[in-house]
Amino acid sequence: VEGACSGLFPPMVQKILIINVPRLFSPIWSIISMMLAEQHKERIVLLSTSKTTAEELSKYMPYEHLPPHVRGADTPASSSPSTGRHAGAK
Q1: Which long-range contacts (CB under 8 A, 24 or more apart) does 36-41 make?
Q2: For the segment 44-81, what is each residue's pLDDT rounded down to a tens digit?
């Protein structure tokens, strides 16, 4: 399986965020993740609906790149959450 997945994640891809993941997907992900190499699993982040918040997503991307529906329609992209900066995805 690792050989088949080797070309799936080019080196330039740091993280793959999968948002609004239903709870029913958790057992399925457990099975899928057993077949992936650790380096691939580390790049994939599953966020349930309750974790799909501006604060949580800003850990992985600059706040100004968040979609308006996540950061709030009334919040301009130039403002940032209390942390005020992007924490990085490394």
Answers
A1: 36/1, 36/2, 36/5, 37/2, 37/5, 40/5, 40/8, 40/9
A2: 888 887 778 888 888 888 888 888 888 775 555 555 55
